[in-house]
Amino acid sequence: MKIAFVASEAFPFAKVGGLADVLGSLPQALKTLGVEPTIFLPWYWGIQGYYVGEVEFRFEGRLEQAGLGHAEHQGVRYVLVGLGDFARDRPYGYPDDFRRFVRFALATAELLRDFEIVHAHDWQAALLPLLRNLGWFKARTVYTIHNLAYQGVWGSQDFYAWTGLPGETYYGAGLEHHGTINLMKAGIVNADAVTTVSPRYAWEITTPEGGEGLDGVLRAHQHKLRGILNGLDTQYWNPATDPYLPYPYHADDLSGKGQNRRALLAQFALEDRPTLGVVSRFAHQKGIDLIAEAMDGLMALGVNLVVLGSGEPQLERTFTWMAQHLPGRLAYVQGYNEALAHHIYAGSDGFLMPSRFEPCGLAQLIAMRYGTPPIVRAVGGLLDTVRHWETGFMFDSADAGGVLHGVREFLKHPDREAVIRQAMQQDFSWDRPAAAYLELYRSLLGH
Question: Does one domain contain both 353 and 268?
Fold first, then answer.
């Protein structure tokens, strides 16, 4: 079975968020099941690949050429689609992102004629199911929503001049949404199957509270919507073999975890108290502001915090100021540091994730793998993966009081070592998700 995965990022070539981890692991897991995967990515600046030719596609009424590169990782083939406006130092965050990824989709669609399944991810590849239905290629299409909050929305005035698509697709193919072009809506309407990254999130996005304005569309297409929980690269995230850890450990011998804890406290001159780790983007979704609001209460409960992350400038300034005024209790490192992230997962006593919404979540899976019970809000994939008082701790309300309630639950548990051991025994590998996707592909092909 030949499957094309089309996405804006994939580990290890380009990574901004969890999408890259999925594209870095799911195809490899499917390959062990006999699938022949190929991943199509923009050829960002800095990606090393071998030039293999060009593809012609039409944009703004004229033929353009995209250079094609070839790369390989763990036996999986990557096709790099080279367009000049992707030769930048980061994948996203530019005013012309919408236009760039429309061009990427149009160029990639010319390369998909030999595949049985095209699996498109998030808004950046959401145009492909529509192009398939217009006859650009014959493969069945799967569309995966990794985060419904980012939909690929643009004013309609330029879109048809860029693409040359028939004007009747504006209403007839699901592109129109409140007077704009909405690529994610078109992906949902036109795909043969729609998936998202946890069963709970699949339900949440059909509700007005979680649907980000597309809940009605998702309810109308609920017959083809399903949630398949993401997995974790358990070879990379393994405390027994992690090269970033000074003291490896496993569930049967936790002595190394204690040594990592002491090293973490010493690194940041923290007092010997229960220590909570945070590794996160500073975004509204992640609820980092709720931690800041709860800081006085957290200090009164007698915990330390080690925080690694960046994002919203105001939150960065807030945590910088708090760390300066709470020496020995709060450490904050701005940005992202891979080695430090591993050390926080291993050396903390608990891991704090107060997300307002969480499609799946990767950090709580890593934390459990490293024997650091997550303290999470009961939403989305967090609710699907954490069992309260057994493998972690939950709270309901998205406010400072909820955060404090979760931490109190953590502190009052009589046997946190039992929670640690149960958490480390959970299977979050890609084996079951890959089997679920393979079943879905086969059903679309009538196998």
Answer: yes
Q: How many CB atoms lie within 10 A of CB 43?
A: 25
Do residues 139 and 170 both lie within one domain? yes
| Phi–psi pair at 256, nearest 5 degrees | -65, -30
Contact 365, 430 (CB under 8 A): no
Is the separation of the CB atoms in 375 and 404 below 8 Å? no
Strand order from edge to edge, sheet including 225-227: 50-59, 62-73, 76-82, 36-42, 2-6, 117-121, 140-145, 193-196, 225-227
Q: Is residue 208 part of a domain?
A: yes
Q: Is the dihedral of CA 357, 359, 361, 364 positive or negative?
A: positive
Rg of the Cα trace of the chain?
A: 23
| pLDDT band at residue 88 under the 50/70/90 scheme | confident
Task: Say how far apart CA 195 and CA 259 lie, in whole Å.
Answer: 41
Buried b (16+ CB within 10 A) or exposed e, 128-143: bbbbbbeebbebbbbb
* Strand 153-155 versus strand 76-82 pairing type: unpaired
pTM over 0.90: yes
Residue 164 included in any domain: yes
Q: Which residue matches tokens 């293999």?
A: 52
Range of the domain at 90: 2-231+431-445
Same domain, 180 and 311: no
Length of the chain: 447
What's the burial of 357, exposed, middle or buried (CB within 10 Å: 0-12/13-18/19+)? Answer: buried
The pLDDT tens digits of the residues spanning 372-385 come to 999 999 999 999 99
Residue 266 to residues 205, 262, 301, 445, Cα–Cα distance (Å) = 43, 6, 21, 57
